[in-house]
Write a structure and sequence with these properties.
alpha/beta, Spore Coat Polysaccharide Biosynthesis Protein SpsA, Chain A, 2 domains, 7-stranded mixed beta sheet, 3-stranded mixed beta sheet, 10 strands, about 50% helix, globular
Length: about 375
């Protein structure tokens, strides 16, 4: 019987079948690692492409739509920031969804001070329609202008140029402009986890959109044409009862390489409030990830390859202890690690953010595992609520 006394990894085997098994398992790691390297290079190529329109269009009127449910404490910060915007013509439409706090009183006060604010109150929601979608549909119906810009009540624009920069990204053929929304930063662990996760999400959807494969947008910073929304009949009937998806499912259904632009300029960012605690963050993740089952199959497969290869890349460091080809795996792991730091640092610079290399490493290790676990739980959950 053939005896393999020593392998490059330093592991002793007696039976040839074990050697063969380990050899093929090596390829199980090398292939996804190679995919990761290709994907990271692809992300850098996509994000480094010019993001400024060739011709600066004449500013057009914009309708900013906000849906609020018991969000008075957030609106006290958002509304003043909106009315400080430098864009020449815009309106703010506040849709108040069955609020029991002081949201209505706040809206009435601001409406008396600002003619650019209009508000609409919702008392009941039709059966079979998710509240956020219904509120958004009401806001779009009463909007005066063609260009719609959406954000959430707990967001604030990064600058007074937010509306103008997002609207300037529209070209004659553009129906969607995908913006970027980050979370406010602080020294907490929750902030670091959410910050890395937000960076990864932006890296994915912006890169694919730049490559002509838009699959989602962020409702905290998203623009599209009112006429296009009405032409398509609004949200798909099959999506009306889905909690969430007013941004990613809508974009994934109709956005394509010809009608979609991305806007990554620092002046066009919005910043969101961090979740209050880990439980709040968990509920938020469940809500977001539960929508993934409704993505087009090609996007589900593409994202599965990205997240799956990321998981194998992290597990690859442990597999080095058993590998029959540790040099090949080790080189690809080191190369991927260099690319990870490079790409993430590039994104941080792009969005004027800072973090330590240690947190990049920790985030890179944790991200694929908790996302997979929470994603499975989200698919099994039946009852998910907006707020």
């Amino acid at each position: 019987m053939l005896r393999v006394d020593f392998l490059p990894s330093g592991i002793f085997f007696i039976y040839p079948p074990i050697f063969i098994l380990v050899f093929w398992l090596d390829w199980l790691f090398i292939l996804p690692l190679s995919f990761q390297i290709f994907f990271l290079l692809f992300c850098y190529w996509a994000l480094s492409q010019s993001q400024h329109p060739k011709n600066t269009p004449t500013p057009q009127p914009v309708s900013v739509i906000i849906c609020a449910h018991n969000a008075a404490h957030f609106l006290q910060k958002l509304l003043p920031a909106l009315f400080e915007q430098a864009h020449p013509v815009f309106e703010v439409i506040l849709v108040i969804d069955r609020s029991t706090d002081s949201t209505l009183a706040l809206a009435q006060y601001w409406a008396s001070q600002e003619k650019r604010l209009r508000y609409h109150c919702i008392e009941t929601i039709p059966i079979g329609i998710q509240p956020k979608k219904y509120a958004l549909m009401q806001g779009i119906q009463i909007a005066r202008y063609e260009y719609l810009l959406l954000t959430d009540a707990d967001c604030v624009p990064a600058s007074s140029q937010w509306i103008g920069t997002m609207q300037a990204a529209f070209q004659p053929s553009t129906n969607f402009v995908l913006g970027v929304s980050l979370y406010e930063d602080n020294p907490s662990w929750l902030s670091k986890v959410v910050g890395f996760e937000t960076l990864m999400t932006a890296l994915y959807y912006l890169s694919f959109a730049k490559a002509g494969l838009p699959y989602m947008g962020i409702g905290r910073n998203l623009a599209y044409r009112r006429s296009f929304f009405l032409e398509k009949g609004g949200f798909s009937v099959s999506h009306l009862s889905v909690v969430g998806g007013d941004d990613d499912l809508w974009v994934g259904s109709w956005a394509n390489s010809q009608n979609t632009q991305v806007c990554m300029h620092p002046t066009a960012l919005t910043y969101s409030q961090l979740p209050n605690n880990w439980q709040h963050w968990y509920r938020q993740k469940i809500r977001h990830l539960s929508v993934g089952r409704h993505y087009k199959i090609k996007f589900q497969l593409l994202l599965a390859c990205c997240y799956g290869s990321h998981t194998f890349a992290i597990l690859g460091w442990l597999w080095l202890l058993l590998a029959t080809a540790p040099l090949a795996i080790g080189i690809t792991l080191v190369l991927r690690s260099i690319l990870v730091v490079w790409i993430y640092t590039y994104c941080l610079d792009l969005f004027s953010r800072k973090t330590s290399y240690l947190w990049l490493v920790i985030g890179d290790i944790l991200f694929p595992f908790y996302l997979t676990i929470i994603g499975i739980i989200a698919r099994l959950k039946q009852h998910i609520q907006w707020h």
